Amino acid sequence: MASVSVYNMEGVQVGTIELSDSIFAVPVNEHLVHQAVVAQLANKRQGTQSAKTRSEVSGGGRKPWRQKGTGHARLGSIRAPLWTGGGVVFAPKTRDYSVKMNKKEKQLALKSVLTSRVNENKFIVLDELTLTEIKTKQMKAVLDNLKVEKALIVTKDVDSVVVKSANNLPKVKTAVTNTINVYDILKYDTMVVTKEAVAALEEVYA
To answer: Most buried by CB count within 10 Å: which residue of 78, 127, 155, 198?
Structure first.
């Protein structure tokens, strides 16, 4: 089993913790990780963009002038794409961008990125994360003690004090164990996870 150090909020090592091999020591499947990121970003797209083609724009039912003899180019409708107020060529239409992944594939992709974070020493375990009040300064101090700048902070349950204290830090995001995802883990350089959250992850994904 992989063993990582446990730190307190002052950045001092206070012990070690054994991590489950079934989650934090699996073969890294880069293909599934890539697929999970593509799926997550695609599923965020609304796909509600739409513009009208020449057949959908109002007006233009009558031929504006006769075919020959006027000196103008021949034209069948004032709603042709060349005209102001005309239709759009190859207009974007409403569509569904969603990409589906199997549940087991999602779990393996998540385990792969968790394993890579442990292997790269970018997985920091805190014995606890308890702030006395909602203060960005306190959260910044904790991260400075851990020598971390761009971090994903994971707790077992929603802690409003922690969440609000981290809101004003542009390179920090908070999450709970059941909301972490592959994209966020890859986006932020380091994972800062409480001991309770590690136990919860092992309980859910083991």
So the answer is: 198
pLDDT band (50, 70, 90) for residue 74:
very high
User: Is the alpha carbon torsion for 22, 116, 108, 167 positive or negative?
Assistant: positive
Buried b (16+ CB within 10 A) or exposed e, 69-95: eeeeeeeebbbeeeeeebbeeebeeee
Q: What is the pTM of this model?
A: 0.81
- For the stretch 81-131, pLDDT in tens is 999 999 999 999 999 999 999 999 999 999 999 999 999 999 999 998 988
Under DSSP, is residue 7 helix (H, G, I), strand (E, B) or coil?
strand
DSSP state for residue 81 in the 8-state scheme: T
